[in-house]
Specification:
The complex is a heterotrimer. By secondary structure, chain A is an all-alpha fold. Helix content of chain A is 72%, strand content 0%. Chain A contains seven helices and no strands. Chain B has six helices and ten strands. In chain B, the strands form two sheets. Chain B has a six-stranded mixed β-sheet, sandwiched between helices. In chain B, strands 2-1-4-5 form a four-stranded antiparallel β-sheet, covered by helices on one side. Chain B is globular. Helix content of chain C is 83%, strand content 0%. Chain C is globular, with a radius of gyration of 18 Å. The chains are: A mainly alpha, B alpha/beta, C mainly alpha.
Chain lengths: 242, 208, 223
């Protein structure tokens, strides 16, 4: 992939933003009830936010593909889903580490945790489907339906903390009821912004890679090679053979 | 139908390349070629089941790259290599299902079965019927539906001598209605008398 | 929805139910297998009646969900490419095909739910007072699972490893239906049933129907 000077500046800016977010996270006030382990908040919440964002992009890109039939949108959907799966995994692992520190167990059958794990499997299934279909347009058509259906699973994940009494904290951002100290909230918002920038960069690179693979596939398909039928010749045994 | 420069690629494999073919109403074309030449692929493109990767293709006046290609499907008929019957349903049940979907009166089904010599086997499950019997049911379906363009892939295979005339009958019926037929076969001797012209598919393209 | 639409949808449903009637797969294989699954659970968790009564309803719907997946796998396996081509050439409306397949699957799943429900009540000693809510829960679960199964079978049709993929596609997406069914029944009695769960199930069924209708044509295309 051709790297431009603009790309390099964006990458440097991304690193600066992430480092800045980490610095704010480390400098934010300590939460007495949980100690330093509460700083996991500044990683855990942004990773799950990023997973939501990634799967929402998959949803929108899938619909856009079905409407426009432009493979570009399918590449965006697939790339975003991959990033979403990675960050959901990070969120679950991060949550488990935080859970061990806070509740002294790596896993509880908490609604939010369980449904997030199930959401992960929805998108693993999506990626497995994409892998199983080599033809780009057929792959795009079928996986876009699954990309739309995946949103069905996101809804119970998000509302799980209000539908059930769970160990998991209720939703961090409730527009009319933000129960968080100012400095901690500021550090959290900076982290969320930093992770969003990371997502955008990762999506750009992953999309570029996918686009190059597609171009390679199309070039191979268009190349003037032998037709498939040329591989069949007359038998060499029997009356007409040697 | 009219094909100009039609190409079909599946993945990175080129099946058809630069196919030029024209079949007018009232014509029947016999298409021959070696195994793997792409005959069945070409039939599926004509049947609108496979979209060309390149070139222009028109069937029954409709451009196959447009969404209108779905509308001409009921006017086409295809008898493929493998039977498409549901094994759990009876021979008559399979035909009645086709009639219901196509909007044809279901009592035409028994008449079509009798026409192909299977009237007494109407209640036999398709899974218990031989390949040849299933083939006859597919002929019965096309007799019932009266397509404007009929596509036949190895129509004589699995048919006993008494049923071979079915192929001639069905081809003649389509031509009488000013339709057209494309017939793929390895059996040149049997096919030659019932077609108006022949062509060979080789190297991914059609040679007349 | 025209006469043609309903004629085709009912023809497809009739075809599938006739095929089931002759093969007997749901009645004579899947239902007994579901009953065996319910029998296995006490062998694993112990035969304490209080425990079984607490988990019984949940186990019933887990078994329903998993067998809904089996039905979807079967659907992927039994339709050949030639059959798909033939019905396409008959001029089937893909939305009618989706509707017909869903109707047939939902009917079979409903029969499965009722029979397995009776088995679960007998084996687990479940208290069925207030189970008249099942008249809403069971049909919703059946329709939702049928829609999911039909969609997944279409998505995975002609895909290598399609039958292996279907469980991975259907099971996670069926979770909202499982939750809605079990939570509705759990909240029966006491202060009265919490209708939000029924609303969730209804929403899922509607979303699946909309997606099924809008994507029927793209999924019908083989290329």
């Amino acid at each position: 992939m051709k790297s431009t000077r603009r790309d390099a500046w964006f990458d440097i800016a991304t690193i600066v933003v992430v480092v800045g977010a980490l610095v704010f996270a480390m400098l934010s006030p300590r939460v007495e009830s949980q100690g330093d382990s509460a700083r996991m908040l500044f990683v855990h919440v942004p990773t799950i936010w990023l997973a939501y964002l990634a799967f929402a992009v998959t949803f929108v890109a899938s619909i856009t593909f079905l409407v426009t039939r432009s493979l570009r949108w399918d590449l965006i959907a697939g790339s975003s889903a991959e990033i979403g799966v990675v960050f959901t995994t990070v969120a679950i692992i991060g949550g488990m580490v935080w859970g061990k520190a806070t509740w002294n167990v790596y896993w509880t059958w908490d609604a939010r945790l369980t449904l997030t794990a199930i959401m992960l499997f929805v998108y693993i299934g999506y990626l497995a489907l994409r892998r199983a279909i080599p033809e780009p347009e057929a792959r795009a058509r079928r996986s876009s339906v699954l990309g739309i259906l995946g949103l069905v699973q996101l809804i119970p994940v998000h509302f799980s903390v209000t539908w059930w009494r769970t160990l998991h904290q209720t939703n961090t951002f409730r527009p009319r009821d933000i129960q968080m100290d100012g400095p901690i909230l500021a550090a959290l918002l900076i982290s969320v912004a930093a992770f969003t920038v990371v997502y955008v960069r990762l999506l750009r690179y992953r999309y570029e890679l996918a686009r190059l693979h597609l171009a390679e596939h199309e070039a191979a398909a268009a190349a003037e090679g032998p037709v498939a039928g040329d591989a069949v010749s007359a038998p060499t045994i029997g009356p007409s053979g040697a | 139908m009219e094909f100009e420069g039609v190409a079909v690629r599946v993945g990175v494999a080129t099946i058809l390349r630069d196919v030029h073919l024209k079949v007018e109403p009232g014509e029947s074309l016999g298409l021959f070629g070696a195994n793997g030449a792409g005959k069945t692929t070409l039939l599926r493109v004509i049947a609108t089941l496979l979209r060309p990767s390149g070139g222009t293709a028109r069937v029954l006046g409709v451009d196959l790259s447009s969404q209108d290609r779905f509308d001409i499907r009921p006017r086409l008929g295809l008898i493929g290599h493998q039977p498409a019957l549901y094994p759990e349903l009876t021979l008559l049940g399979n035909l009645e299902f086709s009639a219901r979907i196509a909007g044809v009166p279901t009592d035409a089904a028994i008449g079509a079965l009798e026409a192909v010599g299977l009237g007494k086997a109407a209640d036999r499950p398709a899974g218990a019927a031989s390949h040849g019997m299933q083939r006859r049911v597919e002929f019965a379906r096309e007799i019932m539906l009266e397509p404007e363009l009929l596509l036949l892939d190895e129509p004589h295979s699995a048919l006993d001598p008494s049923a071979v005339e079915l192929v001639e009958h069905i081809v003649a019926g389509v031509l009488e209605r000013a339709g057209a037929v494309v017939l793929v076969s390895h059996d040149v001797d049997r096919v030659a008398p019932m077609v108006t012209r022949t062509a060979e598919l080789a190297g991914g393209t059609v040679h007349e | 929805m025209s006469d043609r639409f309903w004629r085709q949808a009912f023809a497809v449903a009739k075809r599938d139910l006739d095929r089931e009637r002759r093969s007997g797969e749901v009645m004579w294989v899947t239902i007994p297998f579901g009953a065996i699954a319910l029998l296995l659970v006490p062998l694993a968790v112990g035969i304490n009646q209080d425990v079984l009564q607490r988990i019984g309803t949940g186990m019933l719907f887990v078994v329903v969900m998993l067998f809904g997946v089996l039905t979807a796998i079967r659907r992927t396996n039994i339709e050949t490419p030639e059959q798909r081509d033939a019905i396409a050439l008959l001029g089937i409306d893909p939305v009618a095909e989706f509707t017909g397949k869903t109707m047939a699957s939902a009917a079979l799943l409903l029969v499965f739910e009722v029979v397995i429900g009776v088995v679960a009540v007998a084996l687990y000693g479940l208290d069925i007072s207030g189970w008249w809510w099942m008249f809403a829960v069971m049909p919703l679960a059946a329709v939702g699972l049928a829609e999911l199964g039909t969609l997944s079978a279409s998505i995975a049709a002609s895909v290598q490893a399609g039958p292996a993929l279907v469980p991975l596609l259907v099971t996670p997406l069926a979770i909202p239906l499982l939750l809605g069914a079990t939570q509705t029944v759990e909240t029966v009695g006491g202060d009265g049933v919490n209708l939000s769960w029924l609303v969730l199930m209804t929403l899922v069924v509607l979303v699946l129907a909309i997606v099924g209708v809008l994507t029927a044509r793209p999924l019908q295309e083989t290329r």
